[in-house]
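Letters spell out the chain; backbone shape is given numerically. Both lines appear below:
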Amino acid sequence: MRTEVEFRSGGHVLRGWLEQPADRTGPVPVVVMTHGFGGVKEWLAEASARMAAAGFAVLAYDHPHFGTSDGLPRQHIDPTAQVHGYRDAISYVQSRPDLDASRVAVWGTSLAGAVVLVVGAVDPRVRAVIAQIPMLQPWTTLRRMIPQAELDSLLAALSADRSGRCAGRPAAVIPIAGDGPGAALPDQGVRDHLVERAADSATFRNEVTLAGIDALLEFAPEAFVERIGPRPLLMTVADADTLCPTDLALAAFAAAREPKSLQLIPGGHHSVYRDQFEPAINGQIEFLRTHLATPPRQKDCDHVQ
């Protein structure tokens, strides 16, 4: 029950799939999802299938500049464009009579887990938010991850790249993960994860633009968290996450208004894709059943109009 779809966002065509429950009767609730830092939509296939089997339609797509979606330069992280991508995906959902536009949840993982916090805060059409291992406080996270000398070199490279692009040179790229210094995410877990997942998609590339890192350091998704309520929020947080630090996620959760739920799972950042996938996805499906199972009450409708 999966079909390829595309929709426009910010002058780009974004591409993905719509996966529907096999036994649907009438318009069904929808989960809009996309991938994290440097990933591709194919890495969402298992989560998409599980949610569809549970009775939800799933719109999964590539961010602009990644995978099969349009956007130049390639491999460029643009957090604002990613927020707009989710919002335009919701507009696409609204255009389809086979989907229930009053029951839309947004789901994101890693960097997209932070993006959905912003989307849930600013878009009143969102019924519920699932933020899985979200990347919060990017500047603080970067400072923890990279030794000072390497951080100084990275900041100098960002400045040189900005000047170069102003002079007409192409955007410079760096590896997402690698064996030596100079990678965007110098973490052994990231290297292992990318090696494991790279075979899942021909469109994956182990690189991101320096301009994207620059844009990420201007991003402050945690500032939006308190605006999500009264829309329900589920945060899935790994209790030993050093890539998207656990304490930063818990601080954001504490700042969120009710209704909110915390799903604390054991392990590091990538445990949600491996040994903790089952408990994570099962908890998320239960959250969706609670908050998307029925059409909104009238006062909820008044709130989202």
Observations:
- Residues 2-137+219-304 form a domain with the Rossmann fold fold (CATH 3.40.50.1820).
- Residues 301-305 have pLDDT under 50 and may be disordered.
- The chain has ten helices and ten strands.
- The longest strand covers residues 99-109.
